[in-house]
UniProtKB/TrEMBL annotation:
SMART domains, alphabetized: PAC (SM00086), PAS (SM00091)
Domain PAS span(s) in chain numbering: 110-185
The keyword Kinase appears for this protein: yes
Catalysed conversion reaction: ATP + protein L-histidine = ADP + protein N-phospho-L-histidine
Protein name: histidine kinase
A molecular function GO annotation: protein histidine kinase activity
Length: 213
């Protein structure tokens, strides 16, 4: 709870340890500036701006940032709450909740890193190389895929074959094949009929494999 008028922020023991503060002092109340001093320098200005906007215009707020724990390691947290006002509309207090989201943010960072590596790899490999998610949406594709489809990557990334291929029947066959391979967890080398961008038909020898976690 932040008493805005007195500028005293109180929190429980977990809150105190998250910010590297003394639990007893935190239970009594500390100035907001002393508490937010533990926020990562790269996040501090953004957090200050979010607080100012909530006080000026908002009723609720939510912000994710890194905070320095007692062990000297920065970890991600999510702060959310609401601004309570008096009858004149002046902010008087702000109850809120602090959540530990470090595991989620770490997983997201690792996912982004792997996606970047996958994009670099597919761009460097000749031929037609792409990856799809479990629903058949295109995640990443190289230049060869764009030339085969006859459309730029921004047109088909995030879409299924049914959404970007002109031949609906062909798209259904491709998606059924992909689903069978993903469900079997076994790679296959198969011949697939594909209509090229100029309208002509071609037979491709495709190697498809499920990416296992």
């Amino acid at each position: 709870m932040w008493d805005i008028i007195a500028d005293q922020l109180t929190g429980d023991e977990w809150f105190a340890r998250t910010f590297g503060l003394c639990p007893k002092l935190c239970a009594k109340g500390l100035p907001l500036a002393l508490v937010t001093a533990s926020i990562h320098p790269d996040d501090a200005l953004r957090v200050d701006k979010d607080i100012e906007e909530a006080l000026s215009n908002g009723d609720t707020y939510r912000c994710e940032y890194r905070v320095l724990h007692q062990d000297g390691v920065y970890r991600w947290v999510e702060a959310s709450g609401r601004i309570e006002r008096d009858v004149q509309g002046k902010p008087i207090r702000s109850p809120g909740v602090l959540l530990d989201i470090d595991s989620r943010r770490t997983a997201e960072a690792e996912r982004d890193r792997l996606n970047e590596l996958l994009q670099i790899f597919t761009a460097a490999v000749p031929g037609v190389v792409y990856a799809k998610d479990l629903e058949g949406r295109m995640l990443v594709a190289n230049r060869g895929t764009a030339e085969l489809v006859g459309k730029p990557p921004e047109f088909f990334i995030g879409k299924t074959d049914l959404e970007f291929l002109d031949d609906e029947q062909q798209a259904r066959v491709l998606m059924e094949t992909d689903q069978r391979i993903m469900q079997s967890n076994v790679s296959e080398q198969i011949e697939e009929k594909v209509n090229l961008a100029d309208g002509s038909a071609a037979i491709w020898l495709s190697t498809k494999a499920p990416l296992l976690d």
